[in-house]
Amino acid sequence: MSDTGAAKRPPTIDDVLRLRAAEPLPSSDGRTEDGAARDGAAPPRIVEIARLAGVSPITVSRALRQPEKVAEAKRRKILEIVERTGYATNPHARALRSGHSNIVAAFVSNLQSQQFCLAVQGCGEVLEPQGYQLMIGQTSYSYAKETTMIQSLREMRPAAVMFTGVIEIEENRRALRALGIPIMETWAYPRDPIDMLVGFSNIDSGRFAAEHFAGRGYRRVAFIGRRSGRGALRLNGFREGARAAGLDIVAELSVDRVTSMVDGRRALAELLSGNAAIEAVFCANDLLATGALLEARRLGLRLPEDIAILGFGHSDVAEELPPGLTTIGIDSRDLGRQAGSMILQRMRGDMPAEPIRAIDLTLTHRGSS
Amino acid sequence: MSDTGAAKRPPTIDDVLRLRAAEPLPSSDGRTEDGAARDGAAPPRIVEIARLAGVSPITVSRALRQPEKVAEAKRRKILEIVERTGYATNPHARALRSGHSNIVAAFVSNLQSQQFCLAVQGCGEVLEPQGYQLMIGQTSYSYAKETTMIQSLREMRPAAVMFTGVIEIEENRRALRALGIPIMETWAYPRDPIDMLVGFSNIDSGRFAAEHFAGRGYRRVAFIGRRSGRGALRLNGFREGARAAGLDIVAELSVDRVTSMVDGRRALAELLSGNAAIEAVFCANDLLATGALLEARRLGLRLPEDIAILGFGHSDVAEELPPGLTTIGIDSRDLGRQAGSMILQRMRGDMPAEPIRAIDLTLTHRGSS
DNA sequence: TTGTAGGCGTTATCAA
DNA sequence: TTGATAACGCCTACAA
């Protein structure tokens, strides 16, 4: 049925042919007298701008790329014509000749993660006004896919690459380095990033969690999370912090899947079915923590009196679920913005004074702990 | 602090210079004897493949693009060499010469929407294995941004464009049509899509909601949602359905912002503070519905006895929040996949028999209604 | 400060 | 079925 309220309309042959009819070229060069292109006409080329300005094409190119090298009056005239005609450089011709495009490749581990998307958005906010286009790809946490995508970069010739994560495979690290362009890694704090980094220590976040529990007077604590990747780092930090603060980690529950809250529900149920009396649980991410929180409420437990729950990720649902989830995390959009501006600086040829930046971890305290 | 546990390390000059050292070219043409490129070497070109195969470049090009036009033996040899050397066509040279790239532009209204991201993912799943790259942009529900991005397409020369929405501005519709490439609109069911459509009727979803309420025996119903865009369509359908089923719409609450659950909380609170006794509320999206559900529980209301709540969007949180949110929606990933395969068909030059496809709306019944 | 010459890597066109 | 030729639009290198 149609949104206009009419009965469902079978597509007519007109629908099918409409596109074919779209491109009549009324005048010889498809352009009005002032050089502005009309719909359906080929966009203006640099030679056209040059002709209108009475200069050579290379001068137009310079007026756009290195304005300081073109005489004031000419530059103004050229830019005015560019504006009027809506001229835009053909990015493919530029990439072909100059060897690099205006595309910045951004790889997220998972498009479903609000935090990763926020980081990419932040990065785009900085880069897009400068004429760069973000090309977003999803690695799906798969090394194979990561490798394929990194290989495809050789031909794409992006101006820079950014990841919501760090690259661990040495071969991929080498391939990226060999591109000779700015590479940004994020979301961790490795000893030796490929090129640039805006990250935070996952180990610290575990320590932070332990310290928080200690400060609130909990002694018998537990961990839920993955035993690989970032989860493992958070666990290591949690252990360290617990030892330092004299806490007992009475249980560590490893989950393989972290795809929905159900995984967190199950994990908490399993944890509670053990013998150890648990006062507080640190969940390595908010999806697990949210599931755990819901399960605790379903079981009629009071939070935080019967059990305290702490998550990681600053997810927005966390705020709304009574009694509110306490969560450790970063400002992902800010991470993206910082990454974007460092990338920008590098693309302009400057080396940032600090190619490695740390983002602050913060704890948002709510009712669950 | 570092994830390796070491103390925070100030970046050394090595960090800064590492990238500079990345590209030594040990042999004259930076390539091993079998033609395979090494890290840091320029990737092989089509002439190199042609030389190795003892044919002309154009034959290599044909072997890749129109294999049926190349003799069996030659084709096999060429493809074997392509495989061995890791040759990949330079996309910029191809785009420059042929006039179209392998990029498919995908515009989402909002990257934070899981449903939109799912649709884009589904589309990518179909297109990427065929060698197309998805370039994702965010319009932020802004006409200005939409217009800018559409203009930039003229130069990007994508192979196709997809939107999680429909284009309303006539100028943008014309600009898109003038690109002469497949255009895919989604998420609604307008009378006259630009080119292709995989959509569903937002009006129908409102009718569906009213019918559901009628079937469950609710009489006094209400609506929460935006008065513009899709929200307005859902309201129209809800009104129609209510009239047909003999329901009383005792309140229609318009919200301007739908950015967090808080908006839904507030809306329900406001609704309940009115005089009308309300039995059931249809919320135009799940974010609002989730907020409303939480608010109802906070107020100690029983769902669905004291108040029934119905959402739209099949969001995943909806499942987990007790007593479970009843929600109308579509399979977004499937929408994306269908869109992708129609786009693919068009890019290959075939016209799909049905350029307009309807996606089924389904209702997932849970405890809230 | 401006311009000339030429080529980036591929594919359209036409000829054989 | 294959190849020669030229051109896509721009920018690097060099010259004036």
Automatic annotation (TrEMBL), chains A, B:
Q: What is this protein called?
A: LacI family transcriptional regulator
Instruction: Write the record's keywords in alphabetical order, separated by commas.
Output: DNA-binding, Transcription, Transcription regulation
- Region annotated Disordered, chain positions: 1-41
**Which GO molecular function annotations are given, in alphabetical order?**
DNA-binding transcription factor activity; transcription cis-regulatory region binding
Coiled-coil features, chain-numbered ranges: none
Q: Compositional bias (Basic and acidic residues) spans?
A: 11-21
Give the matching InterPro entries.
Answer: HTH_LacI, LacI/GalR-like_sensor, Lambda_DNA-bd_dom_sf, Peripla_BP_I
Please give the PANTHER family that the UniProt record associates with this protein: LACI-RELATED TRANSCRIPTIONAL REPRESSOR (PTHR30146), TRANSCRIPTIONAL REGULATOR (PTHR30146:SF33)
HTH lacI-type domain residues: 44-98
Q: Write down the SMART domains for this protein, in alphabetical order.
A: HTH_LACI (SM00354)
Entry superkingdom: Bacteria
